[in-house]
Amino acid sequence: MSASVVLVGAPGSGKSTVGALLAERLDEPFVDVDAVIAERAGKSIADLFTTDGEAVFRALERAVTVELLEQPGVLSLGGGAVTSEEIRTALRGHRVVWLQVSAASATQRIGLNEARPLLLGNVRGQLIRLLAERAALYAAVATLTVDTDGQQPEAVVATIVDALSAAPAPVEPT
Asked: Where do transmembrane segments lie in this chain (predicted)?
């Protein structure tokens, strides 16, 4: 069995919040890849970036994501996971929901959160850059795109559930 729904999107798109609510609604487990990485590394994502570097984090992210995609539940990927070709390939055959967000909304949600190492400094400017770099990658892996701007998490979950019930599950590649 594999993950029933995989959430992707920029920091501040609502992946963790929506993921937990969606899992509850679907009566499935919720797994946040970043939380699993932090647990296994024995340090926060910010500390992992600072002490070990982004390359070490990305290697852990690839391994953990590919492993967790084979387990049931709702899976929330880190914002940069889609930059990995290995992860994009592994996402084929999964229901992947892109939680789309504007830089303005994401900045408002995140604030000046120091726990996000790629956003240190000019948070809004960094988000604009990340969104520009990753939008095509999110779109390429998504089987459903949901705009989260101005939406409460419960409304986003309802949109996802409605779309999932209206569409058959994708066929996993053999």
From this structure: none
